[in-house]
Write a structure and sequence with these properties.
By secondary structure, this protein is α+β, with helices and mostly antiparallel strands. The protein is about 45% helix and about 25% strand. Strands 7-6-5-8-9-15-12-11-10 form a 9-stranded mixed β-sheet, sandwiched between helices. A 4-stranded antiparallel β-sheet has the order 4-16-17-19. The chain has a 3-stranded antiparallel β-sheet with strand order 1-2-3. The protein has a domain of about 80 residues. α5 packs across α7.
């Protein structure tokens, strides 16, 4: 209802009117609720008449809304009671509206715009690719499954995704072609939204297996980090920033050595983003002299774990030399030393001048001792049983097993090697190139590697990135673009929460968003939702993103086509 002032024969008149839709013509109309005659006469009697009538209208609207809400509540209750009384096996549909948290971040990253622009510019695809891509991404975040199950389960969302199954598979090929451009777009958008520091980045490698033994140019047998020896795999190299948000990734054939993944990943990073100053933090699996030389040639610095037990004789002597150590407590000490290594490549001898930070901790010493005790026990069993020897040789059980070719292949326990290893219990080495870094900065940077290890765990466990159920190279590439996109969105959400002091795990966030559901009902030919109770964490997520939760019941906002709204 509203107060209307209208002209008739040159004079102003005042009335209260209400808009409604004609049930026959379906066109909007006005009905007069109350007329007050001439505005002039009204004000002559009461100068505040218009203001008072405005207040009256507001009160009438409030009373009407309250009445409508009561009527609707009674109708819903009646509907529920009647449905319960029926012996029907089909309940009312329950749908997830919590995914709109991810859709909010999707919009923040301008992803619809990106896909629409690239589709129009680079392809002749007729369907809207952003629809199946968003469906696959939100499903990967909340209900990870195969592409077929994703399509069949699209009704689990309180949102329509008008697409066909073939559109999902076709979109994977499109994503494969846009992988580098998408990374660049995401990085630009993220840089606008947070204080991103790319002076330090973390790099690591993992593997993803297929439920298959079919080999091609990408799927190959190789060393599996998931202990899957009978399945083909691909190798992923992932680079993340110091917030844990991904920067880029590369896929390699499944038989690619960890060492060989670093060069193409970093060269593309430098060429695509023009980054000239960067410290790469990586685990010892990537510490090869060739990689270190590559990093130096690119102008990058590095912080990498150093394998003390397999290091040079000189390095071992420096580790065991007690002079130069600084004790921060009886349980921890450190020493910084200059460190030089050399190797031959391409007919040349290359020298690398670095620094080595050696640490010792009582906690690590105890861990090393326990780890070795298990190996010693295994090695002693092998010495006692030649039949098990061949089977266990490939599993690391031979570490302390000594085979003498001069004494009729006699197998003995290697006590000498055991004593050598004991000396290095508790010691850990970190090799780095930037002399300006303090030991504290080196340690802090290296300890940040857990972020990338956690990202791999999330991809594999929470997002179920493997096993992989698509087979063509384009589809495989597209599958990983979806996984990468999901990880970026998830990490961005976790960053926002962290900034507000809310350090929830990925699992906790996913569970909270999954818990935000509605039950849909048709009452008087109107689609009504009833909100189901959500996890308390969901409220924290909404508060962090300045989103307003839906009421206990009501209708979807047809204007925005969404349930969650931004707080005004």
């Amino acid at each position: 209802m509203q107060l209307q002032i209208f002209k008739n024969r040159g004079k102003d008149y005042v009335r209260i009117v209400e808009s409604y839709r004609d049930p026959k013509t379906k066109k909007p109309k006005l009905r007069v609720i109350e007329s007050f005659g001439s505005k002039e006469k009204l004000l002559a009697k009461n100068p505040n008449a218009i203001q008072e009538l405005q207040e009256k209208v507001q009160k009438m609207n409030a009373e009407k809304n309250e009445s409508n809400a009561l009527i609707l509540s009674q109708r819903i209750q009646h509907f529920i009671e009647s449905e319960i009384s029926r012996s029907s096996s089909n309940g009312a549909p329950v749908q997830n509206y919590g995914f709109e948290v991810y859709r909010y971040l999707w919009d923040e990253l301008k992803l619809d715009y990106f896909f629409q622009y690239r589709q129009k510019r680079d392809t002749e695809i007729e369907f809207q690719t952003h629809i199946p891509i968003s469906l696959m991404t939100f499903s990967r975040l909340l209900f990870p499954s195969s592409k077929l199950n994703t399509f069949e389960g699209k009704d689990r969302f309180a949102h329509e995704f008008p697409c066909e199954l073939k559109h999902l598979y076709r979109s994977l090929s499109f994503l494969a072609s846009q992988k580098n451009r998408l990374e660049e777009h995401l990085n630009k958008q993220i840089a606008k939204k947070l204080n991103r520091n790319l002076a330090v980045a973390f790099y690591d490698v993992t593997t993803y297996y297929f439920e298959s033994v079919s080999v091609d140019t990408l799927k190959k047998f190789g060393f599996s980090k998931d202990n899957k020896v009978n399945q083909v795999q691909v190798v992923m190299g992932l680079l993340i920033d110091d917030h844990g948000i991904p920067v880029s990734y590369e896929l390699f054939p499944g038989n690619t050595n960890d060492f060989k993944t670093l060069e193409p990943a970093l060269k593309r990073l430098k060429e695509q983003y023009g980054i000239t100053k960067l410290i790469i933090v990586a685990d010892r699996g990537l510490n090869s002299k060739r990689n270190l030389l590559l990093l130096k040639s690119l102008g990058f610095e590095y912080i990498m774990a150093y394998k003390i037990r397999s290091g040079s004789k000189k390095a071992k002597e420096m580790v065991l030399d007690e002079s130069g150590y600084t004790y921060t407590s009886p349980e921890f000490k450190w020493k910084k030393i200059d460190f030089q290594s050399s190797f031959r490549a391409d007919g040349k001898t290359h020298k690398i001048n670095d620094h080595l930070l050696i640490t010792w901790s009582l906690k690590r010493q105890q861990k090393d001792r326990k780890d070795r005790e298990r190996i010693v026990e295994k090695s002693k069993r092998l010495v006692e049983s030649k039949s098990q020897m061949k089977a266990e040789m490939k599993k690391g059980g031979k570490k302390y097993v000594q085979l003498s070719l001069w004494e009729d292949n006699q197998i003995t326990f290697n006590e000498k090697q055991l004593e050598i290893d004991k000396q290095f219990d508790g010691y850990y080495g970190i090799q780095y190139s930037d002399s300006s870094l303090t030991p504290e900065q080196v340690l802090n940077a290296y300890h940040g590697l857990w972020k990338i290890e956690e990202s791999f765990r999330v991809l594999k466990s929470n997002f179920e990135a493997r096993p992989i159920y698509v087979w063509t190279e384009e589809s495989i590439q597209g599958h990983f673009v979806i996984c990468y996109l999901a990880l970026v969105i998830q990490r961005l959400l976790e960053y926002y929460l962290h900034q507000k002091g809310k350090n929830y795990s990925t699992e906790k966030i996913q569970d909270a968003i999954r818990s935000a559901t509605i039950t849909k009902l048709n009452v008087d030919e109107r689609e009504i939702f009833i909100k189901n109770k959500a996890d308390d964490v969901f409220s924290d997520i909404l508060s962090t993103l300045h989103l307003k939760d839906i009421p206990a019941y009501g209708q979807k906002d047809k204007r925005t086509n969404a349930y969650l709204q931004i707080k005004k």
